[in-house]
Design a protein that fits this description.
Layout lengths: L4 H35 L9 H4 L1 H17 L11 H25 L7 H32 L4 E6 L2 H10 L8 E7 L6 H11 L3 E4 L6 H14 L2 E4 L10 E7 L2 E7 L6 H20 L1 H14 L6 E7 L5 E7 L10 H8 L18 H8 L7 H6 L4 E3 L6 H5 L15 E3 L1 H6 L6 H13 L3 H16 L6
Parallel strand pairs: 1-2, 1-3, 3-4, 9-10
Antiparallel strand pairs: 4-6, 5-6, 7-8
Helix pairs in contact: 1-3, 1-5, 3-4, 4-5, 7-8, 10-12
Length: 468
């Protein structure tokens, strides 16, 4: 059965983790060698085990996970019984032990200390079994709780959808929450747009073979412009933005049209960097948090120091964004009055006003130094935001989007900083231009681009460039 790209990526992570666990096992075995020899009334040996059997590590560390993969150790962990996982692990360790023994004889390599090999084998068995069983338990719990499930729509009539579901592995869609079966032959594509918008859908699977080509193309365009993945069990379809790739659902080959960055090691690294850097920045800037909290309480009493607002996250999923409060307590109630009296400096659904009268003096200082944005680092830690990405907008502004293509900026995690944040907000007065900057970032995303934006953010913050 063909594995999906997501499953392959997860397996690669397990391979690396297990290789490190094998290395850890040999290191612990080396530390325990002399104590074990003393228990057996054997003399201690001064030579370091890891130095004397380095060649063993060259075999055991990289090849143990690969041999286990051949025995199916990384397949269907969620449904695997304990005895199956145990037997696969015993077979894999036996094969590696046999390879080490053959290498010792044929290549005339130094004989590895048996105590170290036996102890390391025990550690490898225990560590890898614990890791595999823990992963299986976690996956089962995530499935039961629904955490991490993709919101999916399947397009086709009931006969086509039933046939599609019957032809694939029944477990292939366990990580998907199928929200609706959508029949393009009887329903207009406008309804699909509304569903994608309201339900934060991240993937649409097309199984239809009877709908008109124009309706299928129109539905794919709706997905494309909103940054929602379109998985097509059909002939190749040309697109303007999305990149066609192949994937699978179970054993069913699928054509996938992606207009956002694909799952990769770079995306994984971005997530890891987000968490580590945000935690580090919180620690370094902690005095500024205290300064902001005390200053707000003194200069604008009677309301919380922290301001929370529901913003649109990835695929429009609502989340509670945090900021230090820089406006008067009833700022949101005054919004319509401010618009009537002072207008809007941004053309489009987004409201922006330089010298907004709702901002109190100390709040203006926090905004000038971008200190008010610091609490969003907690949103980054929670996985709701990224350090770099399109700025999250209030839900009511997202609802006011006049173009479908504007929603494609919702196809990635929102960020604390972006190109518009570091230089564009002083010169851009049209929401169309702002969106164009965000879409250019999405289409050209790389870790290097994120690093460039982060480096440009530092002088922008220090000198208050663009802050309002």
């Amino acid at each position: 059965m063909a594995a999906s790209r997501k499953d392959s990526f997860t397996t690669q992570i397990y391979l690396i983790v297990d290789a490190l666990l094998v290395l850890l096992s040999f290191w612990l075995a080396g530390l325990l060698r002399d104590p074990i020899r003393l228990l057996l009334n054997l003399p201690a040996i001064d030579q370091s085990d890891l130095t004397s059997i380095a060649w063993v590590l060259y075999i055991a560390v990289p090849f143990t996970p690969l041999v286990l993969e051949r025995f199916g150790f990384y397949e269907k962990s969620r449904y695997k019984k304990n005895e199956v996982a145990t037997w696969q692990l015993i077979q894999g360790i036996f094969i590696i032990g046999l390879a080490i023994a053959v290498a010792t004889v044929l290549a005339k390599l130094p004989e590895a200390p048996r105590i170290t090999l036996v102890t390391a084998s025990i550690f490898i068995f225990v560590f890898l079994l614990i890791r595999e069983r823990s992963s299986a338990i976690l996956l089962r719990r995530r499935r039961i709780s629904g955490i991490g499930k993709e919101q999916v729509i399947i397009v086709g009539d009931e006969k086509e959808i039933s046939q599609f579901l019957s032809e694939i592995d029944q477990n292939s869609l366990d990580d998907c929450d199928i929200r609706e079966h959508f029949n393009l032959s009887t329903r207009p594509t406008d309804e699909l747009f509304i569903i994608l918008k309201k339900r934060s859908i991240s993937r649409v699977i097309f199984t239809t073979r009877t709908a008109e080509f124009e309706k299928v193309a129109s539905a794919i365009e709706i997905c494309e412009l909103q940054g929602v993945e379109a998985w097509i069990s059909a002939s190749f379809i040309r697109t303007q933005i999305a990149r066609p790739t192949f994937d699978s659902v179970g054993s069913k080959p699928m054509l996938v049209l992606r207009s956002t960055p694909d799952l990769s090691w770079s995306i994984f690294a971005k997530e890891l960097i987000d968490r580590i850097l945000s935690l580090l920045i919180i620690f370094v800037t902690l005095p500024l948090w205290v300064f902001a909290f005390i200053g707000i309480k003194i200069t604008s009493p009677g309301a919380p120091a922290m301001f929370t607002q529901m913003r649109a996250g990835r695929y429009g999923t609502p989340f509670k964004m945090l900021k230090f409060r820089t406006m008067v307590a009833n700022a949101e109630e005054l919004l319509n009055t401010i618009k009537e009296e002072h207008g809007n400096e941004m053309e489009g659904p987004v409201f922006k006003l330089n010298h907004d009268p709702r901002i109190f003096p100390f709040g203006a200082i926090l905004r000038k130094l971008s200190i008010d944005e610091l609490p969003q680092l907690l949103n980054v830690l929670a996985g709701q935001m990224s350090l770099v990405g399109p700025r999250p907008l209030p839900l009511y502004e997202v609802e006011a989007f006049s173009e479908i293509s504007h929603r494609r900026r919702l196809s990635v995690k929102p960020g604390i900083t972006c190109e518009w944040q570091i230089g564009g907000r002083n010169r851009i007065t049209r929401f169309e231009d702002w969106v164009a900057m965000d879409l250019r970032y999405i289409d050209n995303w790389s870790l290097w681009l994120d690093l460039q934006i982060l480096l440009k953010t530092i002088p922008a913050v220090l000198f208050g460039k663009g802050a309002k």
